[in-house]
Amino acid sequence: MQISVSDSIFQKIPHLKSNYIVCENMRFRESTRHELYDGLNELFSRLRGHKSLNDKKEIAEYQELLSELGLAHAHVSTSSMVKLIVEKKKDLILNHPIIDFYNYFSLHHLIPIGAYDLDRIQGDLVMRDSVTDDMFQKLGTDKKVNVEKSVVMADSKEVLCVDWVHKQSDNQKIRPNTKYVLFRIESLRDEVENAKILHEFIDFISKHFEFDACEFKTLDKDNTSIKLALSEEAIDRQDRFVDYTDVLSRGVSDVIVYDDLIGDLIDGKKLKIKHGVDPTKRSLTFGHAVNYEKLRQFQERGHEIQFLIGSFTAMFGDPTDKSESRNIRTREEVMDMAKNYIDQVTMILDKEKLKIFYNDAWYSNMPIEEFLRLLAKTTVARMLERDMFQKRMSDGREIGLHELIYPLLQGYDSVEMKSDLTVIGTDQTFNELQARPLQKEAGLNQQNIISMKMLLGTDGKLLMSQSQGNFIALDDSSKDKFGKLMSIPDSSIEMYANALSRYTRDELQAMFARLDSGENPRNIKMELAHHIVTNFDGEEAANQARIDFKEVFQNKGLPTDIPKFVATSSQTILEILQLSNLVSSGSEGRRMISQGAVKLHEGDKISDLGFTFDTGFTGVLQVGKRKFLNLTVE
Question: pTM for the whole thing?
Answer without folding.
Answer: 0.81
